[in-house]
Amino acid sequence: MRDRSLFRITYVGHATVLIEVGGARILTDPVLRYRIVHLRRRRSPLLTAWQEQIDAVLISHLHYDHLDLPSLRQVGLATRLLVPLGAGTLLRQHGFTNVEELRAGERTVVGGVPVSAVTANHNGTRGPLGPTAECLGFVVGSGQQRTYFAGDTDLFPAMHQLEGQVDVGLLPVWGWGPTLGPGHLDPYGAAQACQRIRPQVAVPIHWGTLYPMALHRLTRTFLIDPPLLFREFMLRMAPQTDVRILQPGEHFELVRGSSEESGRRQERAHLAQPLQR
Q1: pLDDT-derived band of residue 130, with 50, 70 and 90 as boundaries?
Q2: Is the peptide bond before 128 cis (omega within 30 degrees of 0)?
Q3: Mean pLDDT throughout 242-252?
Q4: What gap in Å lies between CA 256 and CA 111, rounded to an integer?
Q5: Whole-angstrom Cα distance, residue 277 to residue 274?
């Protein structure tokens, strides 16, 4: 039986996060391979336990580094997929049988845990000749166990509406190369987002995992610096938020304190054992 009091965040890498809350196991934008298109994964663990017994997968948009069909097949063709409007046809054509399309503002429930789709400011085209769908973020959980998964996004005016609604913010701080195109948050932009949202804890994601082949031999700074810069900006711009930098494979738990510590939380960070290759 699953522990319904468990609230654990595991950073698998890039935009892939395992959210365990209220007894549900929810996986975001799964990339569970060591190579995808022209990108490779830095040596970091990929544990099969992270993709087992998944209650739902959240897909933020159709880009290949967020919607990876082989990775979704590893999770299972019958796994429930919560996807943006316009993504369903592509997934059903590839054999996925439990696809639910959502618009920003719509809400559903996964294993008793509420999941709300929210706006994201990003390009939703699956290039070069693929379909176009909306882009989403998601808020998972209720009470004092609410997690905002931003997917890929730039700042947008309605982000202010999330203030007071988020306990943990999973915020992209970079991408997979030395430069960023439009529709992304960099470390400064992610800190601005935290000013608007005011989560208790912020976890930088979408950094340090994928890189174009051979490019990391020329420069490694884009694989290392973004979360450190994000933390520096946060100390000045949103010091009320605790920044948790997780390397791919690490997780932390937020548990309610005892009666002597009512209203407080204790946090523990752990490193997963690397996959033997």
Answers
A1: confident
A2: yes
A3: 95
A4: 21
A5: 9
Q: How far apart are the C-alpha atoms of 170 and 131, rounded to whole Å?
A: 27
> How confident is the model at residue 160, as a pLDDT?
94
Of 2, 1, 3, 7, the C-alpha closest to 266 is: 7
DSSP string, 60-125: ---STTT--HHHHHHH-TTS-EEEETT-HHHHHHTT---EEEE-TT-EEEETTEEEEEEE-BS--B
Residue identified by tokens 């569970």 is 32
The residue among 69, 76, 82 whose CA lies nearest residue 19 is 82
Q: May I ask the CATH class of domain 7-271?
A: alpha beta
- Cα Rg of the chain, angstroms: 17
pTM score, whole prediction: 0.91
What residues have CB less than 8 Å from 235, skipping those under 6 apart? none
- Does residue 17 contact residue 25 with C-beta atoms inside 8 Å? no
Q: Which two tokens stand for residue 234?
A: 């946060």
Q: Would you kindly state where each structural domain of the chain is located, as residue ranges? A: 7-271
Rounded average pLDDT over 21-39: 95
Dihedrals φ, ψ of 265, to 5°?
-130, 145
Copy the structure tokens of residue 216: 């990391």
CA–CA separation, 264 and 244 (whole Å): 17
Q: Determine the Cα–Cα distance for residues 208 and 250; give it in Å rounded to an integer.
A: 13
Tens-place pLDDT, residues 137-164:
999 999 989 999 999 999 999 999 999 9
What is the model's pLDDT at position 28?
98
